[in-house]
Design goal:
about 80 residues, mainly alpha, 2 strands, about 35% helix
Length: about 80
């Protein structure tokens, strides 16, 4: 019977980590894990940066743009038509 040991915060058993990052540590070893969200110099995550770049590229094709709208009601009406 294995004793259940509660690890301090940020510590996990190597066996609980994804195989790609386990390295050569013994599966029963305990390691401290620190995760950090990666952001660029503008504060965007890689996904946000990619979406922003895609939006910039799409804005270079004005024939594909919708609008301009005169009011928020016009925007809502347009979105309602798309949804129906």
């Amino acid at each position: 019977m294995k004793a259940s040991v509660k690890h301090p915060r940020n510590f996990v058993r190597v066996s609980e980590l994804p195989k790609e990052i386990r390295g050569s540590y013994h599966p029963d070893a305990t390691v401290r894990v620190s995760l950090e969200l990666v952001r660029d110099e503008n504060g965007f995550t890689p996904e946000e940066a990619q979406a922003t770049l895609q939006a910039v590229e799409e804005s270079k094709n004005p024939h594909e743009m919708i609008g301009p709208f005169e009011s928020t009601d016009e925007v809502r009406d347009y979105l309602d038509r798309l949804a129906s």
